[in-house]
Amino acid sequence: MAINHRKAAIVGCGFVGASIAFRFLQQGLFSHLVLLDANQAKAEGEAMDLSDGLPYGAAMEITAGTYDDIADCGLVVITAGVNQKPGETRLELIGRNKVIMKSIIEQITARNFEGILLIVSNPVDVLTYTAWKLSGYPRERVIGSGTVLDTGRLKQLLGEELGVDSRNVHAFIVGEHGDSELPVWSCANVSGLNLDDFCRLRGLELHAENMERIYREIRDSANEIIKRKGATYYGIAMAVGRIAECVVKGEHAVLPISVVLEGEYGLDHIALSIPSIVGKNGLEKILEIPLGEKERTALDSSARQLREVIAGLDL
C-alpha cells in the first residue's frame, strides 16, 4: 500500500493525544488525521470536537478510526499509556506501559505499516527502544519525542536569564528524558556567540549556581506542573508538532529526539535523546556532538541507568 505522507494517526486520546491533535489542526500539516483510543467513544468525541473548529483552521479530515485505518499513514504518534503520578519518576512507569506498547505495536505491524512511528508515551527512551525492538522496523522509522520539550524549556529559561529571545538560544538537553538528563553547556550559544562572549557583550554574568538552578528547574518541571494541574500536555504537543513538521516538510532539522544507538558515543542496545537530523524519512543522521569530560561522564551514567531498565524488559 502506498504511503500517504499527509495522513497521520494518533494512538491514545488522553490529554496529550488530544493536545497534539489540536496542534496538528493548527499547523495544517495533514489532510487526514485519524484518532484511536481504547475508549472508542472518547476518540469519536475528540474527533467531533476538533472538527467543529475546521472552518477556522486548516482544510483537513479528522476521524475516529481503528488500526485498519493506519496502514497508509505517513506518521503514527503513540501517546497511549498510564499517566505519571505526583512524585513518580518516568522510569517507574515502564512496567505498566510496556504491556500497553506491546499490544499497540502488534496491531500496527499486523497492518503492514510502512510509515514512521513517533513514540511520546513515557518513559519515552525506554518505550522507543521497546517499539523498535518489537516492531522489527529500521531505527530510522522508530523515533521518540525525546528531550525536544526539555530543550525548549532550556532555551526559554536561558532566554529569560540572558534577556534575549529564546528563539536565538541554541542549546540541548540530552540523555534520558527524565531525572538523569543533562544540559550540554559546552556547545550552548546565542546566535553563534558562546555564552561567555554573549554575557560579556551584554554586561551579564552567568554563574555556575544560575546554570545549576536552570538545570534543576528543567529536570523538575514536569513534576511541578503535575503537582499543580495533574498532567502536562501543551508543551509536549508543541514539541511533537515541531517534530512532525520536520518529517512532513523534509526539513533536515536538528532536534534531540530519542533514537536507537548502534555504536554512536560508544553506546548500543539502548535509545537515548541525542541531537539528530530529522527529515521525511524520520531519523536521517545521529550527530556525535563534542562533549566536555563531565558531560560525557553524565551521558554514560544516564545510559547506564536506562540500559539496566531495558535489560529487565525481556524483549
Tell me what you see in this structure.
42% of the residues lie in helices and 21% in strands. With 315 residues, it is an alpha/beta fold. The strands form four sheets. The chain has a six-stranded parallel sheet, sandwiched between helices. α3 (94-109) links the parallel β4 (73-78) and β5. The two termini are 29 Å apart.
Please name the CATH architecture of the largest domain.
Answer: Alpha-Beta Complex
Instruction: Write the element-wise H/E pattern from the N-terminal end onward.
Output: EHEHEEHEHEHEEEEEHHHEEEH
Q: Strand-residue fraction?
A: 15-25%
- Can you tell me the number of structural domains? 2
Quick synopsis:
The chain is an alpha/beta fold. The chain contains nine helices and 14 strands.
Structure characteristics:
315 residues; alpha/beta; Rossmann fold; L-2-Hydroxyisocaproate Dehydrogenase, Chain A, domain 2; 2 domains; six-stranded parallel sheet; three-stranded antiparallel sheet; 9 helices; 21% strand
